[in-house]
Amino acid sequence: MKEVDVVVIGAGFSGLTFAHYLPNKYRVLILDRKSKLNSAIESTGLITEVTKNLFADFTDVEAFLPNHITTISVVSPDYNKYFFSHTEKPWIYSTDTPEFLKHMSETLPDNVDLKLESSFVDYSIEPDHDYPVKIIYNQNGSGQKELRCKFIVGADGVNSKLAKVNSNLSTNKKLLVGYEKVFYGNINLGEHPESTVYHFWFGEFSLGYGGWLSPTIVNGKKAFRLGLAKLEKDKDKIHLLEKFINKLKDEKIIKIDEEHKNPIHTFAHSIPIGGVLPDLYDGNSILIGDAAGFCGAFAADGIKGSIISGKVAARLIPKYLEGEKNILNSYLKEMNKFNHLISYYRRQQLYRALWNRMKSDRSFHALYNLIEKEKEGFLNQFCDNMTKKKGLTKVILKLKNIPALSWYAISLFFDLFRK
Ligand SMILES: Cc1cc2nc3c(=O)[nH]c(=O)nc-3n(C[C@H](O)[C@H](O)[C@H](O)COP(=O)(O)OP(=O)(O)OC[C@H]3O[C@@H](n4cnc5c(N)ncnc54)[C@H](O)[C@@H]3O)c2cc1C
What we know:
This protein is of the alpha/beta class. The chain has three domains: 2-41 and 100-173 and 273-344, FAD/NAD(P)-binding domain; 46-96 and 175-269, FAD/NAD(P)-binding domain; 358-415, no CATH class. It has 13 helices and 21 strands. A hairpin with a 7-residue loop joins strand 10 and strand 11. It is globular. Flavin-adenine dinucleotide is lined by residues 9-15, 31-34, 42-46, 119-120, 155-157, 161, 178, 180, 227, 269, 271, 289-291, 295, 300-304, 306.
């Protein structure tokens, strides 16, 4: 039976980052069920400045950033009102996600092998064996196979199979479902659509999150990503994305390229919003990335947590294998050293709880009117700044906002009586 030091399940952002960082004296095998790494990637792929810099430590990320985003536009539920909030320097970047992940896989160090079309099935641990972890996986075309390793890493995403087959590990239970289509064409709202992302707060239409429109470049041509996310319990209404797309066409906010009317990519995928999971490691196994719930419960920004958890796990596992069996207890503490990331995830739970309480267009209008008054400072509490504890509450809690805040509170109160 084949033996390696470490097996990673999943070649997404977290698994590939881990494999780049693990010291090269360890032999690593990554298994992924996909057949191609640059197939459609289930992410909008927006990354913050901090995330970009983390990537720059081990990849040529700059080559995969088609759009530098300096502006956010928030559009009100009836599309009649919108505002722009702008910063001088980019606050996020769009990535050519498929090609970037392909680049990450092609630049893996020599100690790492990657097997595609290989689906993880199960594992067991025999503590007295030199290679105590026994893994079963399915390889397309050649059926079920076994291999052994000293440590197994679950980087297999939000519905981690590795977490499911080990009852001592936690699984993600609270989910959003995101549905996205990518088209060639132009965005026609605002002066600099190629450096603006748009968030649509259409309340009752999309309880749980909202809609987004983000510029990108595909094969050298202007394109955009259009998405809608809803709470998992409402996932049967995710097809409302079509209605959203038609509305944006009618409002002339987007113009789909006449020659390419069909979407370039379409995908639906879950996003973990329950916060960091309680049980992330057991014996010789650990969860990283989405599998561990490292994703903002409100912002749905999981790429940062994927890289940081990959990097931290790659530092802790060698110590574990050298005999420091308690080292994994410091996992979250080590992650929190990156801009208080774990504390940020806890605050995101509060935003999520509030957003989940908003059930009517009235509440979304009330919040929109409140935020619009503070549009200058709105971006300052976003993304990387959110981890620096500059929360939205600090931006809006001002005497002059008391009437708007009161109306928002009343709207939330009425929402208590809605289903
Ligand atoms: C619609 C949508 C939009 C998003 N937009 C953003 C954004 O703009 N910015 C941001 O920061 N985050 C965003 N996210 C979240 C972000 O994409 C994820 O947090 C991130 O991709 C997680 O990376 P990961 O490596 O942990 O997991 P994944 O990217 O899910 O990778 C898991 C890998 O494991 C493989 N795998 C799964 N099961 C098995 C198995 N049994 N055997 C073998 N292989 C397996 C999969 O094929 C996959 O390659 C978005 C998510 C969605 C759904």
